[in-house]
């Protein structure tokens, strides 16, 4: 091998050997390895146990999921509280929940629009909505979630299906169980 080729090779080996096993100066701090943050506390699934996923009716992926559960069996003409759990997959400056009042429900005025301050990703934000179902049958409660991020707004719409039973003093449909809905179908008790 010629001397002009051997010299750079020897210099490279010598430089590599000089730094092999080198320790940082004793006063210098060594950077800690970066580890993904572990969530503390119960998982999202554990925090929303007993709630069901609300079906989205808009095509937008919106970066948010919604779960819900009525606190009691919905009955026509009787006040009802519906528990909501907002699960954003992205951080947002704020969020707005618009609860649709329709011919199926009368929503308490204070619950028609709910504003939440800054949201962190992968957290659970609980709210409850007070309403009164108008008539027995299957009714959809419309909920529109708007995530405000920087100068953008991401919107996702949900339809929460609720099976509303007849009024407690109505007596039900002939031949149907006492807690049957308008179609004469009894509902199963909620799992706890």
Brief overview, please?
This protein has helices at 3-19, 44-47; strands at residues 52-53, 64-70, 80-88, 94-99, 105-107, 113-116, 125-133, 137-149, 152-164.
Order of helices and strands: HHEEEEEEEEE
Stretches with pLDDT under 50, minimum 5 residues: 30-38, 170-192
* Fourth CATH level, the homologous superfamily of the domain at 53-163: Immunoglobulins
Specify the CATH class of the domain at 53-163. Answer: Mainly Beta
The CATH architecture classification of the domain at 53-163 is: Sandwich
Quote the beta fraction. 25-35%
Side-by-side strand order of the widest sheet = 1-2-3-7-5
> Main beta sheet, described?
5 strands, antiparallel
Described by its quaternary structure, the protein is: single chain
Through-space gap between termini: 81 Å
- What is the total tally of β strands? 9
Helix content: 10-25%
Describe the model.
This protein is mainly β and 192 residues long. The chain has a domain at 53-163: Immunoglobulin-like (Sandwich). 11% of the residues lie in helices and 34% in strands. Strands 1-2-3-7-5 form a 5-stranded antiparallel beta sheet, with no helix packed on it. A 4-stranded antiparallel beta sheet has the order 6-4-8-9, with no helix packed on it. Mean pLDDT is 77; it is low at 30-38 and 170-192.
Walk me through the topology.
Blueprint: H1 3-19, H2 44-47, E1 52-53, E2 64-70, E3 80-88, E4 94-99, E5 105-107, E6 113-116, E7 125-133, E8 137-149, E9 152-164
Antiparallel strand pairs: 1-2, 2-3, 3-7, 4-6, 4-8, 5-7, 8-9
List keywords for this structure.
mainly beta, 4-stranded antiparallel sheet, 2 helices, 5-stranded antiparallel sheet, disordered C terminus, 192 residues, Immunoglobulin-like, 11% helix, single chain
């Amino acid at each position: 091998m010629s001397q002009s080729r051997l010299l750079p090779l020897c210099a490279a080996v010598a430089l590599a050997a000089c730094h092999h096993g080198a320790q940082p100066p004793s006063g210098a701090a060594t950077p800690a390895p970066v580890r993904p943050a572990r969530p503390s506390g119960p998982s999202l699934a554990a925090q929303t146990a007993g709630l069901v996923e609300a079906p989205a009716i808009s095509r937008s992926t919106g970066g948010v999921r919604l779960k819900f559960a009525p606190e009691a069996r919905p009955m026509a003409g009787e006040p009802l509280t519906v528990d909501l759990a907002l699960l954003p997959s992205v951080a947002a400056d704020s969020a707005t929940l618009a609860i649709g009042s329709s011919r199926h429900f009368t929503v308490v005025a204070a619950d028609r629009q709910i504003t939440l301050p800054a949201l962190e990703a992968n957290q659970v934000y609980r709210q409850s909505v007070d309403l009164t179902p108008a008539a027995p049958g299957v009714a959809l409660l419309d909920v529109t979630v708007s995530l405000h991020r920087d100068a953008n707004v991401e919107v996702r719409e949900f339809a929460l299906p609720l099976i509303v039973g007849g009024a407690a003093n109505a007596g039900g449909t002939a031949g149907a169980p006492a807690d049957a809905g308008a179609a004469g179908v009894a509902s199963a008790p909620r799992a706890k």
